[in-house]
Amino acid sequence: SYDIYFDPTELSIPADTDVTLSLPNAGAAPHNFSIDALQISVDQAPGVTDYTVTVNAPAGEYEYYCNVPGHK
User: What's the mean per-residue pLDDT of the chain?
Assistant: First the structure.
């Protein structure tokens, strides 16, 4: 996470498999990593680099975004 964007902007993972994502916040502001369809929401304080989340999803496309107001 960076200020107002993610890198990468897209990613592919295998379906129905646990995948652990590393979610460092390299920005100066608080951020969040959310995937509404999977009920995932991880708040990220600025400069903290040890956030992770495990994602397991059926095949499909899912939007991830920052739910901090004005960041989506």
Answer: 95
Backbone φ/ψ region at 6: left (φ over 0), alpha (ψ -120 to 50), beta: beta
Contact 30, 67 (CB under 8 A): no
As beta bridge partners, residue 21 has 53
Please tell me the pTM assigned to this model.
0.90
Angle value at C-alpha 14, between 13 and 15, nearest 5 degrees: 115
Model confidence pLDDT, tens digit, residues 44-65:
999 999 999 999 999 999 999 9
The whole-number pLDDT of residue 4 equals: 84
- Report the DSSP beta bridge partners of residue 35: 40
